[in-house]
Structures are given as C-alpha cells and as structure tokens.
Design goal:
5 helices, flat, three-stranded antiparallel sheet, alpha+beta
Length: 129
C-alpha cells in the first residue's frame, strides 16, 4: 500500500486489528500502512522495559555463572533445525527421515555420518568427549 521495498529481514506481526512491522530484533516497530501509523493517537508505555542488550545479558550470565533469558536451551531447537537443513543440503535429491530420539536418519547412513564427527582434532576430544 505504501509502495516501499521491505528490508532484507525483519518481523511482521499480524493481529486482529492491524499489522506491525519491525526489524529483526523487534526494534523500530511501526504500524502499516504508513497512513495508519500516522493516524495512531497516543503512546503505549512499557512499564518495566529492560534496556539490557542481548550481548550484555549473555556476558553477565557467563560472569555470574547463571543463565541468560536467551539461554542455549531456548535456541537449541532452532540450532538443530539449521543443522538438519545443512545436512539435507549435503545429501541432495533425497527425502531424509530424522529420528530425534536416536539422533540419526533412518533412511540414510550417508546423512547420519554428517551428524557427528568420527574424529576430532587433538585436544578437542576432551571437551566434546
């Protein structure tokens, strides 16, 4: 409606009463189309808005031996999906069937070999073990 190109990445929230477009980290939100944003009357305050950056949060968690809100457990599913997609690209033209409990592809020994390394460089075996 605004005849503008969208950014290469970002988020679009579609609700019952309209749409909000923002950048990848949900900064600079705006109603779309622009006419709706200009007509917005008022401000919505976030009472307990945390201004800690994601990087600071992660560093504080490491320093204090705690967990950050963006802990590794929260991103594990996404990391797993990206890893499986990478393996699928290396075994093209084949439908792969993943068994999460066994951590293997049930129909492709070739793809299963890519899940874990057989050997590690010297020194890493103690860490990864």
């Amino acid at each position: 409606a605004d005849n503008q190109d969208l950014a290469d990445e970002g988020m679009l929230f579609i609700g019952d009463k309209g749409k909000i477009l923002c950048d990848f980290r949900a900064n600079s939100p705006r109603l779309i189309p622009a006419s709706r944003h200009k007509a917005f009357d008022g401000t919505i305050l976030a009472a307990d808005f945390d201004k800690t950056t994601a990087e600071d949060e992660w560093i504080n968690a490491v320093k204090n031996k705690g967990k950050s809100k963006g802990s590794f457990e929260q991103v594990a599913a996404l990391a797993g999906a990206v890893t499986l997609a990478s393996i699928a690209l290396r075994v093209p033209y084949k439908r792969l069937i993943w068994d999460a409990a066994k951590m293997e592809f049930t129909n492709s020994p070739e793809a299963t070999k890519l899940v874990r390394r057989e050997t590690y460089r010297e020194g890493w075996e103690k860490i990864i073990g």
